[in-house]
Specification:
- This protein is of the alpha/beta class and 338 residues long.
- Helices cover 46% and strands 16% of the residues.
- A six-stranded mixed β-sheet has the order 7-6-8-5-9-11. The chain has a three-stranded antiparallel β-sheet with strand order 3-10-4. It has a two-stranded parallel ribbon with strand order 1-2.
- Strand 1, helix 2 and strand 2 form a beta-alpha-beta unit.
- Helix 2 packs antiparallel against helix 9, helix 2 runs antiparallel to helix 10 and helix 4 crosses helix 12.
- The termini are far apart.
- The N terminus is likely disordered.
Length: 338
């Protein structure tokens, strides 16, 4: 009888250990098609790395349908509705005042250089402002240099852009469009085909990758390109802080190892590859005009209110904008020269 009780106790103990060792499944809310570079080339590889780094103890489930609209995705993670989310900082205007520095024009020619530099500056100078409260920031990153694409509309001289209707990509491009005398059209990226094909807009601000992804290659034929890009978009990749805190120290360390700069570099390389693939699709049908030095100066003048506005936001938070911008530009050059 005692032997049976001993065996039973051992069996119960084994079941208890087995239950405690069961894997943790992190639920990720996703608002993009699975074919998009953010999902296919960033989130899925990160999830695979996490499973490998934790020997299968922690896995990721990318949900088939989003738990809310794109602008809600930060709060979905902060409030614990989802364990993991990614999104666009500018989808919630005014909330992330300091990350807008990564969206400035004329800063970086590649996503990798900007994303890694952005991550470094975020960690050293911007994280302390705690704009991402409620989450563990796994990475910040940016897409490739943004351009202006048009259909049947010239992009030079710069003065000729006045009056053209353009779909903008948030506050940065909205202010730039206003500075150029253009008419801003606010619309989500998935509506780009509709507004261009329907003549609602004459052009669109986009990185190269997005033209074929949203099937716009037949709707644009001219592009304005400048060193460092006309604009950028900054993204976050976050985890609910309480969920992160609930993991073992070993698994937390594994997440740290594959996140931060490692993730930013992977994201940047993926976006650069997507831009290169996009260029192959449109190179023969889109004429790229590289802005002259005089035109770049015109664009800088039109963009000055962007710099002034972000600087004011920095001053409101007692952060030195000029010092951070200089540091970001230095890091961009350091990464680009690696």
């Amino acid at each position: 009888m005692l032997k049976k009780l001993a065996y039973a106790s051992i069996s119960l103990l084994a079941l208890s250990v087995s239950a405690s060792a069961q894997e943790t499944v992190l639920r990720m809310s996703n608002w993009l098609p699975t074919s998009h570079p953010i999902v296919k080339d960033m989130m899925m590889p990160w999830a695979e790395q996490l499973e490998e780094a934790t020997d299968g103890r922690v896995t990721v489930q990318i949900l088939d349908a989003p738990l809310g609209p794109p602008p809600a995705h930060f709060d979905l993670a902060a409030n614990g509705v989802a364990d993991l989310t990614f999104g666009v900082h500018s989808y919630t205007p005014g909330r992330f005042a300091l990350t807008e520095i990564a969206e400035l024009p004329f800063v970086a020619d590649t996503s990798e250089s900007l994303s890694v530099a952005f991550q470094r500056v975020y960690e050293s100078d911007l994280a302390a402002a705690d704009e991402h409260r409620g989450t563990k920031v796994l990475g910040v990153f940016a897409h490739g240099p943004g351009m202006l694409f048009t259909k049947g509309q010239p992009v030079t001289p710069i003065s000729g852009l006045s009056g053209q209707k353009v779909r903008v990509a948030g506050n940065i491009t909205n202010v730039l469009a206003e500075g150029l005398g253009m008419v801003s059209i606010q619309a989500p990226s998935p509506q780009s085909y509709e507004i261009l094909s329907g003549g609602v807009a004459d052009g669109i601000f986009f990185p190269v990758e997005s033209i074929p992804f949203f099937k716009l290659e037949s709707l644009v034929d001219t592009a304005l390109r400048v060193p460092g890009g006309l604009y950028n978009v900054s993204f976050f990749f976050v985890m609910n802080q309480a969920k992160f805190d609930s993991l073992s120290a070993e698994d937390q360390a594994a997440i740290e190892e594959i996140s931060g700069e490692a993730f930013a570099r992977m994201a940047g390389q993926a976006w650069d590859a997507a831009d290169a693939a996009g260029m192959e699709v449109i190179a023969d049908t889109v004429t790229f005009h590289d802005a002259t030095e005089e035109e770049v100066e015109e664009l800088r003048t039109a963009a000055q209110p962007i710099f002034d506005g972000i600087k004011a936001n920095y001053e409101a938070k007692d952060v030195d904008f000029d010092a951070i911008l200089s540091k970001l530009e230095t890091e961009v050059q350091a990464v680009a020269s690696e």
